């Protein structure tokens, strides 16, 4: 059995040249002999792979450039035809990608469509138009970690080390423990985004700060505690100078909230917020100036991030999970005050 191979662009030009340009014109049999192909292959190529099959070759001769383009297009269409999808499902997929920024697993699990995750990946690979705006998630490879030399810590940092954080916080068995970090603008711009993420629900809160001085940070934290203070028991952060500021630490702790610091060069100790920062960077890539971003735009994108269905939450959204845990916490507080009132009576 002969091995199947496609005609190349060069071979198509040779067919055209030998059959139409050379004098005398070569027959299909002679062309097939020179190209070491069957004569039926040459005949089918000239008669079927042309612009207008309904018009004779005398009026509209064989065009090698169009034939090569047409053959490539037909190969793509043949591959696509193996995957059938309704136009309604593809419209839903496009809407979720463009308007909500969902990934393929999110669409498959919570997109209310009858297409499996592997099939959606096939659609994206085959170039379906619904996936034109989809960017595949990049997973980072492990790198050799830099191990810094031992540094003598102050007593303030030693007392608040992540090593002293209770096990219930590390295991995420209790609601109300947050992680905090800053996402910076491009070099030379002081404006940043203060990010706080609740560890159990992955609920995200963001604020634009003009700089990392204590005054700006305290104003942003005041807004945070005014809205979420009842649901905050601890904050874990890195050892950036803006967070090691004694004024900031004491302002947080006077509200009854514990502060814990991760070890230097150990971002995995606050991996939740590092993962959320990647979602934020999807909308504001490195090199963005947050001085040009409005609070409204940031709130809109934060809302979209909180509406991502996440596998770690059994494909619930952080918004839904946070509200459920918040309602449980409020019910427990009301029960506590009610029991105290009964005892006093």
From TrEMBL:
Superkingdom classification of source: Bacteria
UniProt record, GO biological process: DNA integration; transposition
InterPro entries: Integrase_cat-core, RNaseH-like_sf, RNaseH_sf, Transposase-Integrase, Transposase_IS30-like
GO terms under cellular component: cytosol
Residues making up the signal peptide according to the UniProt record: none
PROSITE patterns: INTEGRASE
Name of the featured protein: IS30 family transposase
